[in-house]
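Milestone M4 deliverable, item 7.
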Amino acid sequence: MNSKHIAFVALMGALGNILFLISSLLMPIVPGVSLDLSHIPTFIAAIYGGPLVGFLTGLLIGILPGIQYGPLSPSGSWLALVALPIGKSLTGITAGMLCESFQINERRTNRSLLTIPLVLLSYVPECLFTIFYFTVLLPYVVGVGGPFLLAFILPKAWLEIAFMSFFMAALVGNNGFNSFIANFITQGKGIK
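Output delivered:
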């Protein structure tokens, strides 16, 4: 990784945390569950930078949600401070691997259309980790079960990811955005 890539990860991580803060303050759904658009920078980083950049960006983006739903929450569990960055980094690395496998940045046709299912698929590992977190980790480590929250969290998360998949398809198909990102990362190469 060179200094441009490190700066790109830091920029996307900061943007993700800002998006989380704004969306969680403006759109709480129930206590402990709010709208979260922080994965938009994760997907940008993963699509244009590859798995490592997506992983590191997801890790950074998980910090503020981890603090809010960990030490600052009524349950006060430090487990969320570790688990949320791990979950978000799973999405970043998966999106980067899928985009490299399907050569999203090399395609000239159907690039936007292919981005939609790849973004949706890239959330599956985090979804499985979220189920594990609420059904196994929380009850075992903290002593409080959380399966009830899954009824709110998972449908909300999939709706957010569906929205983001179309949003990312629009960004990937936008030549101006692609030129802007090319200033930070060499498009199509990613970071090995």
